[in-house]
């Protein structure tokens, strides 16, 4: 992406959005088996426990009210593709009863290759889902087994072909830094052939209280070292760029027009509602977090945090520089921070690492891998 094109696509997207728009996230914590690296709130639940959760979820949606238009909906997890037909219908029936959903809303569901099938894809189409995010992670059977994934390479490829019969807007996740995987470029090449339009490449993170943490600690699992991960990331970014995938965020690449609108709303400081266990909302300059336990969620336990001006300044810089949304200089000025007086800002501009256009400043995509460095040096 050339410097003059940075922010162009996102600005076009936001001409159709306003402060009266909102996004919805729904957390589905169901899983068949916990992957070794997973630190998300997810459980292997019985049918009765799942039914109880869905009832509480529907009640939570029922008791929320807003006049804002819903521009995006995202079902994440966990494994949302474990939802059965009646559960999916119930969730979307309640959403359409309670909210004014834009007729062109982007509606995404995360799926795993082993738990999605043709009948479920038909149901997704029927309820209005128009974007599928597939948890591929790797196309090596050895690697998939080592991290506890339940699908094989063949199953991932077959399911992507099947999904392509019903949906055009398909995203796939890949993990960088897995043991023995010095490059994921060959996987990206295969995904492109399968007509995937969006690729998310996340760095492997080893979280405490995961099986992987114990395996790394006991030297039973050896992730790729930091230098190797950096090289893998650079190779992937270069390869995808050659195939017209714009790197519009640190970990996300997409063909033009297939950027995740839901995530762009997060990164551009838009408001969103989170339903379900561990889900977060951002409303009226407050962050609201649902409890991380089923017991806490069922009694509607929440934590609230008021966003101060100082917090907002830092968050807008952090979010805007990690993607092509950029940072609005006038907003920082209104918050009491004149970024143009920051000596580091002047230096980054002079060195061509940051550009300033149309009242915003942007970090060039080739520097995304160093985003944290620039962000920290631009804080007040």
Second rung of CATH, namely the architecture of the largest domain = Alpha-Beta Barrel
Q: What is the average per-residue confidence, as pLDDT, rounded to a whole number? A: 93
What is the name of the CATH topology of the largest domain? TIM Barrel
Query: Biggest sheet, strands in spatial order?
Result: 7-8-6-5-4-3-2-1-9
Number of strands: 15
Largest sheet: 9 strands, mixed
Number of helices: 15
CATH homologous superfamily classification of the largest domain = Aldolase class I
What is the CATH top level name of the largest domain? Alpha Beta
Helix content: 25-40%
Distance between the termini: 29 Å
Number of domain modules: 2
Rounded radius of gyration (Å): 21 Å
Q: What descriptive keywords fit this protein?
A:
2 domains; 15 helices; 380 residues; TIM Barrel; disordered N terminus; nine-stranded mixed β-sheet; alpha/beta; three-stranded antiparallel β-sheet; single chain; 22% strand
Please give a quick description of this structure:
Helix content is 39%, strand content 22%.
Any chance you could write out the topology, listing elements then pairs?
Elements: H1 8-14, E1 21-28, H2 47-62, E2 69-77, H3 85-98, E3 100-111, H4 118-127, E4 131-137, H5 141-146, H6 153-166, E5 169-176, H7 185-193, E6 198-203, H8 211-217, H9 226-242, E7 246-249, E8 252-254, H10 261-267, E9 272-275, E10 280-283, E11 286-290, H11 294-298, E12 302-306, H12 309-321, E13 327-328, H13 329-334, H14 343-350, E14 354-357, E15 360-363, H15 371-378
Parallel strand pairs: 1-2, 1-9, 2-3, 3-4, 4-5, 5-6
Antiparallel strand pairs: 6-8, 7-8, 10-11, 11-12, 13-15, 14-15
Helix pairs in contact: 2-3, 3-4, 12-15
